[in-house]
Structure formats: structure tokens, C-alpha cells
Amino acid sequence: MDPVRNPFAPGAGQRPPELAGRDRELDAFEIVLERVARGRPERSLVLTGLRGVGKTVLLGELRSMAVRAGWGAGKIEARPDADLRRPLSAALHRAIRDLAVRHPDGERVAEVLGVLKAFALRSAPADAKLRDRWQPGIDVPVRTGKADSGDIEIDLVELFTEVATLAADLETGVAILIDEMQDLRPDDVSALCAACHELSQSRSPLVVVGAGLPHLPAVLSASKSYSERLFRYARIGQLDRADADFALLAPAEREDATFDVDALDTLYERSGGYPYFVQAYGKAAWDAAPRTPISAADVKMAAPEAEAELAVGFFGSRFERATPAEREYLRAMAELTDGRDEPVGTSGIAEHLERRASSLSPARDSLLKKGLVFSAQRGQIAFTVPHFGRYLLAQA
């Protein structure tokens, strides 16, 4: 098979050639866009799931939908070592520019940009030296008195209100998309929830779409109790058999190739239906096959190549971030689940390692902060990366 024509695209955040199995989420967001633009009440959206299920890709697709609908849209990736002001300022700057090309009142646009600039400049302490101050690249005078108090909760409500009013002038909306939302600092999570709450009450045309690991709802709930009702939650998981087959067959057939039924059986067994793995195994199988249709024998021949790539780029990079004590904890999880994607009790890990549970708390807490595991429910822990347990057992 010609490797140049290989349609499959395993990569972090890279859109697959066929976005299979996400029609429900796309249709739901289409309704959100229509309702908000018409002044109807609608909740912001939170997508949750393990790594490799396509949350980042879906966020990108939702942003594209918003832009096609005439909305202003900006996307950021949260980081645990940075506050929200800088990346949010850049995202809103882009969203305002999307609206500015159609807004008839240039002075009004400049006023909102001035408020945004005031908000952005508060990312540096008031006593910071000039060289340490971040310049946001917004070429309008600062408009003081709004969104510049230094209290992120107050400032975010005022800023969102200004931007939403600009969108309302055009009978459209603004979408702010936040990837890795669980990594936001606690104060920023609280401020974001408060701002979304305020805007939902006033039916302002601004929505936040967040994506994160399965414990993100718990992070939001711990910040504001009403967050359970503030957001609409959608769990993003692996593809079912029909969608996984379609993700392989549709792009292949556009290149005048196909997979036989046994090959599809083997690919689903290997990938578990996780979109990233579907692309990885599909790409390797294409390159290994001498001709179409791609067979189960081709898939089995290609599997070591796909697994080697996953071991380096998907599993290994995360395992390398763990300390020896954390690796011991991870291996114990893998052994207790026999490599399955299942939660395991923290007390069972302590018994397995013949250690006191309290002595393992630092390793567990560090793994939680690094995003390698999440608390599935009280007293239980699970991998954030699918098939990670299987990878650890193979390494052992």
C-alpha cells in the first residue's frame, strides 16, 4: 500500500480523517448555538473522558462550528502553573476580532477591547517592574473601571458581560473553549463558574465549553456547589464497533482501499475503540499491507509497529514523568487490574505493596496532580490513559 496515500492520522489533538461517533455532541452544540443566538437560556458545556478519546479534536470541531455560525470563538489550554488571565485574554481577543469585522460601531469594539486590555494587564502585580509586565498586543487605549479590580471573580463577570453585549449587537454569540480544564487554579475555577452563573441568569450570549479528565465535574462541584446545574456534562468514551469500523473504512475507501471483516475484528480488539488507537493501528496496518483489502494477517504484522509508537509517544512520555515511588504505585495498579481499564481501591494497593496507606499518599497525590490517575470515586483510583495498565505489564 502506498504510504503517501495513508489517510490515518494518529497525533495529539489532530483531527482524524473521519470524526466518527460524535454526532450526538455535534448536534447538541448546534442547538446551543441556535438557542443562545435567539436569546434562549442554555447551559455551558463540559466534555469529560480519558486521554486519547478525542476531547481536544472535538473542541476544535465545536470552535469551527461556532465560527461558521458567525460567532466569536477563542480556545485555550489550561495549565496548572499559570493563571487564567493571559490565555483567556488572548482567546477573547481573537473572539472579539471575529465579531469586529461585522460590527458597525468601531468605537464600541474599541471600548470592549480597552476593557479586555485592562483585564489582561492585571496579570502582573501592581508593583511589578515595567519589564516584567505582559503587553497583550491590543492596540487600543486601556479603558479603566471595568474588569480591572484584581479580583478575578469580579473581573471575569464584568469582562464576559462586555464581550457578550458586543455579540448581542450582532444577534450572535461568543464561545470560549477551554482544554485540560481540570488544570485551572482553584480561584480561576471559582471565578469561571461564577461568571457562567451570572451570564446564564441574564441570558447573555456567551458560553463556555470545557474539556477535561473524568474527575473534572468533581473539581467544578468542589468550587461551586451549583456547578452541577450550571453545566451540561457529556462523557466522551471509546467508539462502539460500528463507529470504529466507519472511522477506518470511510477514509480507506476514499483512497480506493478497504479492510476485510477479520481485519476489522482484530483492529477493534487491539484498539478497544479508543480513537487515538484506532488511528495508530489503522496507519500501521495500511503501511504493512501489500495490497487491498487489508487483512487480519496484515494487522497482526503491523501491531508491533503501532505498539512501539504508542509506547514512546503515548505511554512512555507519561511514564517517564513519574518518580520511582510513583512508578511502583502505577505498577501495583496494573497488577491488581490485570491491565484492564478499571478502578482499583487505594487500600488494595497498600495491601498489595505491603505498605501503610498513609505512606503511599504522597505518590498518589503527585500522580493525581500530574494527571496520570484520577479518583474514580471515594477510595478508588484509575488510570487517565486507556490501556496504560496493559502497557505497564508488558514492560514488566
Structure, described:
There is one protein chain. This protein has helices at residues 23-37, 55-68, 85-100, 106-121, 152-169, 186-202, 216-223, 227-230, 241-254, 261-271, 275-288, 296-319, 324-337, 346-353, 357-369, 388-395; strands at 44-48, 72-77, 174-179, 206-212, 231-235, 344-345, 373-377, 380-383. The model has no long low-confidence stretch (mean pLDDT 92). The longest helix is centred in the last third of the chain and has 24 residues, at 296-319. It folds into three domains: 23-235, Rossmann fold (3-Layer(aba) Sandwich); 240-318, Helicase, Ruva Protein, domain 3; 323-395, Orthogonal Bundle (Arc Repressor Mutant, subunit A), CATH 1.10.10.10. It is globular. The chain is of the alpha/beta class.
CATH architecture of the largest domain: 3-Layer(aba) Sandwich
Distance between the termini: 35 Å
Question: What is the CATH topology of the largest domain?
Answer: Rossmann fold
Q: SSE string, helix = H, strand = E?
A: HEHEHHHEHEHHEHHHHHEHHEEH
Mean pLDDT: 92
CA radius of gyration:
23 Å
Structural class: alpha/beta
Pick out the low-confidence regions: none
- Shape, principal axes of CA atoms: globular
What is the helical fraction, as a range of percent? 40-55%
The strand count comes to 8
The description of the largest β-sheet is: 5 strands, parallel
Lateral arrangement of strands in the main beta sheet = 2-3-4-1-5
- The tally of domains stands at 3
Region (Disordered): 1-20
Domain Cytochrome c: 168-265
Protein name: ATPase
GO molecular function: electron transfer activity; heme binding; metal ion binding
